[in-house]
Amino acid sequence: LLTSFKLKSARQTVNLINYSPGVYFLKIRVNDQVESWRIVKQ
Q1: CB 22 within 8 Å of CB 41
Q2: Closest CA to 26 of 17, 8, 14
Q3: pLDDT at residue number 1
Q4: Is the whole-model pTM more than 0.85?
Q5: Which of 42, 17, 14, 16 is nearest to 28 (CA)?
Q6: C-alpha distance from residue 23 to each of 8, 16, 39, 40, 42 (Å)
Q7: Cα 26 vs. chain centroid, distance in angstroms?
Q8: How many angstroms separate the Cα of 41 from the Cα of each of 13, 20, 30, 33, 36?
Q9: Tens digits of per-residue pLDDT, 1-42?
Q10: How far, in Å, CA of 20 to CA of 2, rounded?
Q11: CB of 39 closer than 8 Å to CB of 24
């Protein structure tokens, strides 16, 4: 786990500029629903 935070609005930007290139996984939980995304930073 690199970071965890609560969303402040319906739209949120995740800044990966300080992270090394690689594969990252983003998981968002809203109530009982969970969505996951695979992000490749080059």
Answers
A1: yes
A2: 14
A3: 81
A4: no
A5: 14
A6: 25, 11, 6, 5, 9
A7: 4
A8: 15, 8, 25, 26, 16
A9: 888 888 888 888 888 999 999 999 999 888 899 999 999 999
A10: 12
A11: yes
Whether the Cβ atoms of residue 35 and residue 27 lie closer than 8 Å to each other:
yes
Partners of residue 4 on adjacent β-strands: none
> Within 13 Å, how many C-alpha atoms sit on residue 6's CB side?
2
Q: Provide the pLDDT for residue 40.
A: 97
Dig out the tokens for 6 from the structure: 């609560």
Tokens of 27: 């998981």
The CA distance from 17 to 10, in Å, is 22
- Supply the pLDDT for residue 20: 95
